[in-house]
Amino acid sequence: MDNVVDLTTSDEGVWVATTGGAYLFNPSDSSFVIVNKADKLNSQNFTSILVDSDKNIWFGTEEGYVIFYDTENGETKNILDIYKSDKSQKRVNNLYARGDTIFVATSFGVVLINKNNYSLYDTFTKFGNFSTEINVNAVIKKERIFTATSSGIAVQKPGTINLVAPESWDNYSSPSSGFFGTIRKFDIYNNRVIAATDNGVYEFNSSWDILTLQTVPVVDVYVDGSLIYAATKNSIYLYDGSNESLIYNNNSYDFKSVTVYNGNIYIGTTAGVIELDNGIERIIKPDNPPSNSFLNMDVDLDGNLWIATGKDGQGIGAMVFDGNRWDVVNYQKFPSLQTNDVFSVRASRTSNAVYLGTWGRGFAVYKDGALTAYNSSNSPLAGVPNDPNFVVITDMEEDSKGNVWLTNLQNTFLQQLYVLTTDGNWYGYSFTKPLLSSNDLAYELEIDQFDTKWFRLFSGRIGLYYYNENGTFSNTNDDKQGYISQLNGLLTNTITALKVDNRGQLWVGTSLGMNIIPDPSNPSVLNISIPSLRGLSVTSIAVDAVDQKWVGTNKGLLQLSSDGFEVINYFTSLNSPLPDDMIRSITIDKKRGIVYAGTDYGLVKIETTFLQPAESFGEIFVYPSPFVVNNSAENTLTIDGLIDDSYIKIIDINNKLIRDFKAPGGRIAYWDGRDNDGNYVSSGIYIIVAYDRDANNVAVSKVAVIRK
Questions:
Q1: In terms of DSSP bridges, do strands 594-599 and 657-662 run parallel, antiparallel, or are they unpaired?
Q2: 664 is in which domain, residue-wise?
């Protein structure tokens, strides 16, 4: 929610529209009200925002949605007419309200919506001699309608009614002197329409004449009585009717919008909102991910979410979320990291260490607030052929003994795989079966229960590779290596994701769906294909505490049964809070049952009851108590505190077995109040017995059942 696209004000404060949602900022107490897809909006990729005369909010989006948000009760209305139209470009560029009409400037013209019944009642796509279905950046009405198009400004002719007719519009391709460039916004000043353009602020009085800031590219204007606030890329100017003055400049941010609330100036930027209060500057934004880049993610032993953010100068470091607040680990805080292009993150499964792979500056270990970096100057890690110091680490993973393995992209010495052992020694490995060159780019890494290293190639001889050093780092004679391709049963050689599940099976995501290697110790076996994913491009795979598969694709997020053949849930941007259907990464906090899914437009957190099993039986908790069994309602009793591979028996007070079943896995199981014959039980006291496979570990609880 850092990338601000538009600002407006209401009685309560400043409304901010971003590419990742919107929020109301109340300056009186510095509080925020967040509005996003969790509020049943079809999109949160906003392009514009409007407060109407009833103090309700209207949003325009990149996809073409117009969304009404009732500030009193939080209800929303998604208006789909533009989105569902046959137009090739549907972006909503600007919103303006007049009376009962919402004017919508779009990529193909102007649409009119009745704000009382949300109906679209008119569309204008031809403005005089301008091209049909021309892009309209802004619209306003001052007795007549004004539109800012890609070819100039179109103004409704006096007295015309049929605005669908092109002859109802006057065209102004340029002002009386000079030229407009891009016309970005309209406002009304001294009872005249003014326009913010690439060459200054113009006013309309039968013709368009320069008002202020001639030749200055203006991105937004805001009128406050007799004053005009004009925003350029890095500056704010004030025009008082006679003179213009520069009142603020900041080259660290790109300005997008400006408004004024209670005398303070608010500037929308690509990195939040700047508030100017009598010359005192502060950044205003809710605590949210500092970036919308979620290349990959992992959760450490303390439940902190770690996120890799970019490459080629686009990264901001590693984002960290502790469940309440966001932070960033970057080279400004840890200079030895040398870059903010953190491309991959992995959390240790045995300590509180987190591993960071960078795009160009090697590998780092973050632990206990300190960072240790490894690069070409202090390790055998090697850079790309044309720059030995540009060390790219695409992934890292610990083996069963705590050694850290890394994939080193385009290694000069053709050693695509490295290991840093627990005693601090480094070893590098090349591939000969088949031979890999510097053009074969190694990406995602997974290690199975046999300590075999699996990785995929992003380009070159693409496919699936494996390597096992057989526990002898310096002796390569007993090593095992190989290559699996479409000839061995893969749907395609374009591998996109890898994950070893709780049973040790290797799941292989591809651009055409999913394969499974059931026995990684015998990788030559033909692979099993998952029908529900055929034709979908898999982008990420995660496994929860009960071995369910959460699969990110180019068309949404799927929750699959443990064997992958049943689709339990299929989440998309249309039926869930997912901000986009293209899932970039997934990870799961198994201890807390939280699924994180990252997209280009934000992060989604899904809370589940699939919790990591307890290490040993303590007290098991059953709830609700009393447990009401009702033929007309599907109630369930929760049994919490189970260990791995638990079994459940339900016994009555006469020691009669009522029901027995295997828990689904994880810490929690459920009882539906039925006996082994499928009948609801009678009222009474029931004993809940949980035990492991061999009945060596047992835990007991009881519950009162009321049959209605």
A1: unpaired
A2: 621-707
